[in-house]
Amino acid sequence: MFCVYAEEKQNSQGMTYQEILTKFGKISGLVMADYYYVVQDHKNDIEDENGFWFRRIYLTFDKPLNEDVKTRFRLEFNSKGDFKDEKDKIVGFVKDAWISYRFYQRHKVIFGLSSTPTWDLIEHHWGYRSVEKTPLDLFKFGGSRDFGVALKGYFDEQQHFGYHVMVGNGSGPKNETNKGKKVHGAFWYSPNKSYVFQILADYEDRTGQTDRYTLQAFAGGKWDFGRAGILFAHQNREQGAGMSDLNLEILSGYVVINLADKWRVFGRVDRMFDRSPDGDDIPYIPIATTAKPTFILGGLDYEPFKNVHIMPNVEAVIYDSEVGDNVDNDLIARATVFYKF
Known about the structure:
Layout: H1 17-24, E1 26-40, E2 50-64, E3 69-78, E4 91-103, E5 107-115, H2 120-126, H3 135-138, E6 145-154, E7 161-168, E8 182-189, E9 195-204, E10 212-223, E11 226-237, E12 246-260, E13 263-272, E14 293-305, E15 308-319, E16 330-340
């Protein structure tokens, strides 16, 4: 994202760049776009479909009000990505709208529509949201945003022990429609610049006997040659009075290798130990709901210019063979272009 950080250098009017930023704010954005080809799919009617689409566009305005108070307003534009609606258009909505206050240097309180703890840290460590969502986001274990109050910071001056807790509506950017709330809590330990370990829990009070809770553990490492991470998550979903709870589990691992100055290769595997109940609603790569899926992603990242990435990649979903209900595997080839400004 574009920003000028020079503290001392002044322009012709005698203002430092930091003063300009404080006065006028910062506009930034990003674009994720693909050419895609559906090589094979469990939905036979979309095989051989191909085309261009924008998966996501952000337009962000950041404005600090002083050294401790910051604000953000972000719009997101996307489409359904369901391969069905010929009249589907790119639509926009408010992604972020928050104000934060920093206190005691290491802590801040955030009010408004902001990132949830569920995969905030993991998404930054994975680093390829431009190609695919993090596992819990992809399989719809939660939402990336919520409207509420959050606390975020570090317990120690060395910033080894961090936290991010939140109380929100549980409805993401949508309107609240019930009296229940969602509580999130993530805590992490980073002994040095190379490693980070995180545990997370959330609980959502939903209408009727349909409450949900999620537990997640993550470990990640960064080195000169690349980075890697591994994640395990468990989610319990109440199904209503007289119904057995639905228990879902995911194990995921990824690796990113730096090949050269402008080249990287990346790969990821997500194993879901249960059928995906929300698979039909996953945009851009719908997943069958009748068999246990293993999601596989591999690709190459070329950065010809700063903040511009060209990434040929392949996504596959391999389904377990189940008696009487075999499902065709999915394979989508894509050429992804990602840039930010």
